[in-house]
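Hi X.,

You mentioned you wanted examples for the new student's onboarding notes, showing what a folding record looks like when two proteins sit in one file. Here is a clean example. The first protein comes first, with its sequence line followed by its structure tokens.
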Amino acid sequence: MPRLTRDATTWLLYAQIAAYGYFVFGFGPLVPLLRDEQHTSRFVASLHGTAFSLAMLLCAPLFPRLVARFGRSRTLWGAMGGVAVGSLLLALAHGTVQTLGATLLTAFFGCVALTAIWPSLSDHHGAAGPAAISEANAAMSGIGLLAPLIVGASVSADLGWRPGIAVTAVLVLAVVLLGRLLRHRLPSGHQVADATTSQGRSAGGPADRTPAPAVTGRGDPRLFLAALGVIVAVAGVEVCLTQWQSDYLREHAGVSAAGATAAGAALVVGIFVGRLLGARFTLRFPAGAVLLGSLAFSAVGFALFWASTAPAVAVGGLVVCGLGMALQFPMAIVLVLDTATNGPDAASSRMGYASGTAFGAAPMLLAALSDRISPGAGFLLVPLLLAGAAVLTVLILRAGVPAAAPAPTTTPELQP
């Protein structure tokens, strides 16, 4: 059984992903605040989420070129610098065009950083790579618990949201200082996650040391498309709740702007706890069954959040939602890999495009429905996505895809 040894390189990579994780989880509750400040509709404000989606789609083809030219280590440090600069530009921006541009810039460099971190952890730890990646995800969620609270405290102190989001640059600077203090070079191999894994295997490189997921390659494109549909649905659920739950708490439960922003931590609490405990379920039960259970769990939590006007009950519903959401994307990845027609590398690239599409389309659709009808009606998109994911999962399982392999541990906000 592989053993995970956490050395200086490991902690440095964890610190890098945590620094960007602060921005990701701090930005979600920011969208309603930008809407108030810029006096725009929910639809226009949701374009900031679309900027994240565009960043993901741009990162996928550009990342291999950056690594081929600069190496993985330089690419990663450069991307972290871009995250710091982008977050400061966002803190200084005022107009919608300015905030959209700063969001796109920060998200792009963040995606580049994440795409470099995963293979770095895998190469450095070999067979223990999946465990290291799992811990890195937990580190990202852990810092995500603080981000909404800090942004909310900044708003509550009448300082606005800008100081809260500017903390991202401070964290990046701390990581740079940590790197100098440790004097430890990051893995600088040119193997690129998903894009060049097959080359690494054929050459006997580091990719050989990490066991590949079980992939049947059943060759049925309809099942593969259905699995990608599950990816779109569960990613859509996460981004809708992350970006717009604070707006709904204000409109439906009468929570203040600062309180609703801080309440975003409730969702992250559920996700964090779910990731810590979820591995036990994935080892005991087939991934398809775990996915269906997590969808049902999120549906119950959403019902509490959506129907209650009592702030405590609504926030408790967000925690339950997060517990279910923690396992949905990893289980959906298993379905995609098990129905892949051209192997895991091609399937992984398709997952990136699917999740990027969901990140752009789902919050915009929810915002448009909320503007035209009501926030309550707009949020009904969430149970529709949950139901769609459940139907597609059942269809895939009935076709004979067992999806019994242990699931990867990555999430929608981590996908390139």
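Then the second protein repeats the pattern, sequence line and then tokens:
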Amino acid sequence: MSLGKGRTAPGRPTALPGADAGAEAARGRIGNWALAGLVLLLSALVALLDAVTGDDLRVIPLLVVVPALASVFCTLRQTVWVAVWITAVVVGSGLGSDGTFWDFVFGIGFTVLACALGVAACAARIRHATEMARLRSTAVALQRQILRPLPVITDRVFAYGLYEPIEEDRFVGGDVYEVVESPYGTRVIIGDVQGKGVPAIGAGFATIAAFREAAVREPTLTGVVEALEAAVVRHNGFSAQTGEAERFVTALVLGFDEEDDVQAVNCGHLPPWLLYEGHASAVPLERTYVPLGLGGLSRETRTAESFALPPGATLLVVTDGVTEARDAAHAFYPLDQRLSGWAGHGPRELLDALQLDLAEFTGGVRRDDVAALALRRAPGDGEPRPVSGAEEARPVAGAVTD
């Protein structure tokens, strides 16, 4: 997917998160031989105990809990096999007991009913897991179709990126980014929609669609931001009519033109970080305005400010999925400290290090989307440029390309 004038380096499509969750549930968590050994061992132990206790205390009927346990961890076929085996064991035990005919009939009926319920529970679990996997895949696929694969190369900027959406339904977020080459230079946005779920993705889509149009239409960066504000307000009005909650969007909007400085309008977002000559520091933006969609609550007029981006420097912008990631002790991710050790990395190497270190810090457990852009000015005439091809391309994690 490629919108705007930015060129997207090709990358290989990868599977969507959640697409295999239903198949994983259908496969089960216990192998056939391991399951057979466990069931046979448990049956032998219970039968031995039943023989010791005699007719005064029958423990064989306790085997009916085995199909219920199997329904949680096993495939449907495995659960059916366990149910048939347990039924056969109980029937065989009943034939050799001294109980009455009606005791035998009642025991068999109870066993068949319990085993049937176990099989039904297993089928319901697998069906539910498959449906939830399909919903997760649809939501993540929709989110990735909104966001183009990276890197994006324009006449003024090379934009490398990292994007990892959350798979769990209640944690599907609304992190957004876009890079657009316009007659007024390259415009970049990174933002985070308030809240989670599919409605957050809808607000993110409204923001991105407005940015793609305004970035090539508005001559000033503040004009782009005003168009984004109006788009979020319109989306909130539509959401109110359909019973959805209104949302705001924190965003950092950047403009790269022929000048050496970068223009920025910060709408409640994290400031960018500058990595240059072995040093890393946060860019000291003077003003942080209210998020998009809340402009009516403030009397301030959003204005753009400038900061220097020397040739060879890397500008890193992230969402709070990075800075608010936590480890097992609930400590926040120390991005400032980490960047000091990566100040000499190039944009792609920087994002690789960030991705690996973040996964190690959190133990693979994330509570929010992660999005990051590493931006570097395009070299001048005669200077080397990145190879546009699969060797150079580092697509957004799991992105889908058209």
